[in-house]
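Why run this: before we spend reagent on co-expression, it is cheaper to look at a predicted model of the complex and decide which construct boundaries make sense. The entries below are exactly what would go into the expression plan.
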Amino acid sequence: GDEQALIDLFEEMPAADIAGFIDENFEIYESLALMDKMSPEVQAEVFGYLRPNNQQVLASHMEVGLLAKLFRDMSSDERADVYALLDVKLQDALMRRLAKHDRDDLLRLSSYEEGTVGSVMTSDYAVIPASGTVEHALRRLRQTAPEKETIYQAYVIDNDYRLQGVVSLRDLITAAPHERIEDIMVTDLITLTPDMPQAESARIISRYDLIAIPVVSETGVLVGIVTFDDAMDVVEMEDTETMHKSATVGKIEGGLKDASVGMLYRKRINWLVLLVFANIFSGAGIAYFEDTISAYIALLFFLPLLIASGGNAGAQAATLMVRGIATGDVTRSDWFRMLGKELLVSLGLGLTMAVAIALVGSLRAGPDIMLVVALSMLAIVLVGSLIGVMLPFLLHRLNWDPATASAPLVTTIADATGVLIYFGMATSILGLPNI
Amino acid sequence: GDEQALIDLFEEMPAADIAGFIDENFEIYESLALMDKMSPEVQAEVFGYLRPNNQQVLASHMEVGLLAKLFRDMSSDERADVYALLDVKLQDALMRRLAKHDRDDLLRLSSYEEGTVGSVMTSDYAVIPASGTVEHALRRLRQTAPEKETIYQAYVIDNDYRLQGVVSLRDLITAAPHERIEDIMVTDLITLTPDMPQAESARIISRYDLIAIPVVSETGVLVGIVTFDDAMDVVEMEDTETMHKSATVGKIEGGLKDASVGMLYRKRINWLVLLVFANIFSGAGIAYFEDTISAYIALLFFLPLLIASGGNAGAQAATLMVRGIATGDVTRSDWFRMLGKELLVSLGLGLTMAVAIALVGSLRAGPDIMLVVALSMLAIVLVGSLIGVMLPFLLHRLNWDPATASAPLVTTIADATGVLIYFGMATSILGLPNI
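The model came back. C-alpha cells follow.
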C-alpha cells in the first residue's frame, strides 16, 4: 500500500530526487526494499546519486550477487567511487562476480590516486574509427548510446587506441552522410593526463566551454574522458576544500553531515594548537611593554580594536588575493601592481578608521593617548593589509597552496605586529614616567 | 610580417586562448587591428571571451557599424552582457543599427536584473513543434545548428510558445525517423523562472547533471535556456562572492585586476569600521577588570592567545556550517544534531589546547594563574565554537545569507566573550588583593 504509492511516485521523479528522498529518510532495510522494486537501470542511477555514507551501508548489506548486478548497470566512474568505499573482503567477493572487462575497468579506474583526473574520469565514452564515414559513425553512436555517458563527443582512435581526433555529434548530423571522419574531425585537441590534479579538468572545461575532455596516457592512448557534470562536482569539492582551508580546517571526506566527531577533531586541532603558540609572540610583546602598560593602563581599552583591525584588513586583502590567484584573475606577474594598489586602498581604510576611533575615543582618553591610538590604527591597518597581499604571493611562489594564507594565520601575524606598533608608539610618544 | 605570423598562429588556437592572449597584451589599436583580420564568427567568439573591462574599451573605440556587425554574430547572452557595459549614448547608436528581432532580443535580455536567471540565460535555443516527426525535427536542428548555443536539447512548443516538452538529440537519433515528437518527448520538466536567483540554475544543473535547463514565464511561455557552461561561470562567481563575503568584502564587479582603488575602498570600509566599534566591547571588558589586571599584570601575557583561540575555533565551526548550508549538505532540521556534535568536538579541542598551554605556560607563571588560563581556554574554545555553529543557523532562519557569519564577525563576538571569561575567572579564582 504505502510502499506501492512511493514506487508510483518514484516513476515520475528524476533519479537525483529519488536518491535525495532515500537519503533524507534512510533506513537500511526499507531502502533496500525500495531499491528492489525499481528497474535495474533506475536502481543503478539512483544508487549513484546517494550520499557516500549510505552507498557504503547499503552495499555492505546487499547480497553480493545483487551488488554485482547493480555494478554492471552503473556508470564506470560512479562504481569505481563506490568500490573504493567497500572493505577489502567485500571488494574481493564483488570482483569474483564481475565479468572480465568490468573487472579490468574497475581495477584500472580505482588505481588512480584520489584528487587526480584519473579518479574522476569515466570509461563510458564512444569511439569511432578514422577511416569510416559519417553515416557509419552515426549508426555506431545510435547502437551504443544507452551505455555511454555522452555521445555528444565521439573519440576517433587508431588501431592502438591512440587518440587521433574528436567529432561532435553536432558536426556529425550537419555533415553529409558519405563524408569521411578523418576529413571532418578536429585534430587540435585539448587533452588531460590521468595524473593531473582534478581541478585542472574543471578549469579547462570551464575555460573552453566543453561538454567533455579526453584523457590520454603519455603515449597518446585514450584512457578516459571527464564530462562537464563531473567537472561541476569537482568545482564544488575544490571550493569547499578551499573555504575550509581558509579557516584552517583540513580536508573532510564525504560531507559534513557524515563526518564523525573524531574526524572533525583531527581536521581542526593541528592548526588551532599551532596558532596558540604563534600567539605567544603577541603575549611576549605585551609582556615586554609591561612598564608602559602599568603607567598608562587606559591604553588597554584600545588594544582589542587596534589589533583586530589589522587582522580584519589583512584577512580582506588575503582573501581577495587567494581567490584571485585561484581563478586565474591574478597571476604572479601582477604582484607588484597589486601591492601598489593595496598601499593606496589601505591608506584610505587606515585614515578612515583612525578618524573614526579618534572621534569616539576622545570621549574616553586624553589627546595624547588618542594621537597614539590614531597613528597606531593607520600603521596597523597598512601593515596588516600589506601582509595580507604578500603572504599569498609568497606561498604561491614557493608552490604552496595560497589558501594556506588563511584569515587566522594573517590575523595572528597582524596581531603580533599590532602589539609592537601600538605599545612601541605609546612608549616613544608618551615616554616612560619612571625613567 | 609580425602581425601575419600572429594571425596564422590564431587559426590553430581556441577562441578562449586568443582572447587570453589579447587580454594579456592589451593595447586598444593593436587589438582592434588583430580582430579586424579574423572572420566575423571568430571575431564574435573571441570578443565574447575577453575580460569585461577590455570588451568595454574596445567597443567604445569601434566604429558603430562594425560593433553592430559584431553584435549580430555574438550569442544572445554574451551580447546582452556587453551591451550592459556600454554608455547610454553608444547603446542608443548601436540599437539603431540592429535588425528588429536582434533589437527586441537584446532589450528583453538586458531587462533582467543582475544576479537573476534572466540575466544569464540565452535565447539561442532550438525549438521544434510537437506535431512533427523525428525526421522533421532532425532536419530542422541540422539547418539551425550554427546559430544555436546547443542543439543537444530541443524544446517542444505549442503555437503560443508555451513549453510542452523537451527532446534530447540523443533520443532523436536513437528513435525511428517516423516517430512523432509528442510520443517521445519528456514532459516531466525541471524548469526555472527568469526572476529566480542565478545560483538556482547552477544548483539544479549540477544536481540533475543537465546540459541545459529551460526558463519559462509564469504563463508557461519559453523565454530562454541556461546552459551548463554558463552555470559553471555562475558557480565561480557565486563562490568568489561567498569567499569575499566571508572576509567582509562586498561584491566586486568584473574581477579584482580591473577593480579601481575607489571601488576596493568602498567594498571594504563599511565592515571594517563596524568591527572597530564592535571591538569596543572587548576594550570595555578589559577596562572593567582594570583592578584585576593591575594586580596580576602577568595575566596579560596570555590574553592574546586565549581570545584568538576562541575566534579561531569559532571561525572553523562557522565556515563548516556556512559551506554545509550553501551546498545543501546541512539543512535547518540538522541544527540540533550539529550543535551536539560541535559540543563534543570543541570539548576535545578545548581540552587539548588547555593542556598544551598549561605545559608551556607553567614555565612563565605560577600554578594558580595556569589554572585560570587552562580553565579559561576550555571555556573560551567551547563558547567560541558554539557561537560559530549557531550564528549561521540563526542567520539562515532569518533568511539572511549565512555567509554573513563571517570569520571576522564570529571572531569579534568570541573576543568579547573571551575577555569576560578570562578576567572574570581570574577575579573569582585569584581574588582582588585590595578587597
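The radius of gyration of chain A is 30 Å. Chain A touches chain B through 111 residues (CB under 8 Å). Bring this page to Monday's planning discussion.
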